[in-house]
Amino acid sequence: MADKVKDPVCGMEIRPEDAAATEEHEGRTLYFCSHDCHDTFLKDPHRYGHPADEHGGHAHH
Ligand SMILES: [Zn+2]
User: Fold this and answer.
1) Are 49 and 27 in contact (CB under 8 A)?
2) What letter does residue 9 receive in the DSSP assignment?
3) What is the residue range of 26's domain?
4) pLDDT of 4-52, one tens digit each?
5) DSSP 55
């Protein structure tokens, strides 16, 4: 039972071993379902690098 991870760009849940691409971001490894999602992330990493669902009431600045 491998843990599933979430592609931060499209929100799809994938298994790490099925990821088309990975990226280190601020000490964490992110997994992408496709190279398209990886490219999208690289264009705007700060938009996708901090999933909103991890810390519910995250203060906005
Ligand atoms: Zn994706």
Assistant:
1) no
2) T
3) 5-48
4) 999 999 999 999 999 999 999 989 999 999 999 999 999 999 888 765 5
5) S
CA of 12 to the centre of ligand 1 (A): 6
Length of the chain: 61
Query: How far does residue 20's CA lie from ligand 1's centre (Å)?
Result: 9
Locate 18 and state its tokens. Answer: 């099925």
Domain count, the chain: 1
57 assigned to some structural domain: no
pLDDT given for residue 49 in this prediction:
76
3-state SS, 10-54, equals: CCCEECHHHCCEEEEECCEEEEECCHHHHHHHHHCHHHHCCCCCC
C-alpha 33/C-alpha 31 separation (Å) is 7
Give the CA angle between residues 39, 40, 44 to the nearest 5°.
115
